[in-house]
Amino acid sequence: MSQALRNAFGHFTTGVTVITAVDAEGNPVGMTANSFSSLSLDPPLVLWSIASNASNFAVFSTASGFAVHVLHAGQQDLATLFATRNTDRFKGLLTSPGAAGAPLLQDFHARFDCATHATHPGGDHLIIVGRVLDFTAGSGEPLVFYRGRFAASLPDRIVGETRP
């Protein structure tokens, strides 16, 4: 059932993000995630989840802050890099420290610099809620994930009217 359920979940198109933080020694850590979502405007909150068996689980579950980088359509290689184990994910990348200490990538579709607000167990994952301290939204097209692979978004084919 779990593979069939995973396949059914894959029918929901998601954005692709790279989440970054620092470990107890101040070293940058990061991972690709598609479990990101907005949560609240007042206060400004976002959430994402990490599998309890993820290599960086201990870091993210105790980090005082993190940054969410929503990737643009040209960043499939970056998403793959941050999903690859046992590699220097930050080699050659320019970063700067965010308000909560997380490394901020310089190239992104949108970025949210967050302080950890709360964590909640969620089955085989931990749900991490962050309070948005700062954000930046770019232009262009997002990188999306659909049915187990990267896909192109189709903004010119959006149906219906946009609310102000």
Descriptive keywords:
164 residues, Pnp Oxidase, Chain A, globular
Could you explain how this protein is built, in words?
It is a single chain. This protein has a single domain, classed as Pnp Oxidase, Chain A (Roll). By secondary structure, it is mainly beta. The protein has 3 helices and 12 strands, in the order H-E-E-E-E-E-H-E-H-E-E-E-E-E-E. Strand 4 and strand 5 (44-51) form a beta hairpin. The strands form 3 sheets. The chain has a 7-stranded antiparallel beta sheet with strand order 3-2-6-9-10-5-4. The protein has a 3-stranded antiparallel beta sheet with strand order 1-11-12, with no helix packed on it. It has a two-stranded antiparallel sheet with strand order 7-8. It is globular, with a radius of gyration of 16 Å.
Condensed summary:
The chain is mainly beta.
Following the backbone from N to C, one meets helices and strands in this order, namely HEEEEEHEHEEEEEE
Helix content: 10-25%
Number of strands: 12
Low-pLDDT stretches: none
Radius of gyration: 16 Å
Quaternary structure state of the chains depicted: single chain
SSE order and pairing:
Blueprint: H1 2-9, E1 14-15, E2 17-22, E3 28-33, E4 37-41, E5 44-51, H2 57-62, E6 65-70, H3 76-83, E7 95-97, E8 103-105, E9 110-122, E10 125-137, E11 143-146, E12 149-152
Antiparallel strand pairs: 1-11, 2-3, 2-6, 4-5, 5-10, 6-9, 7-8, 9-10, 11-12
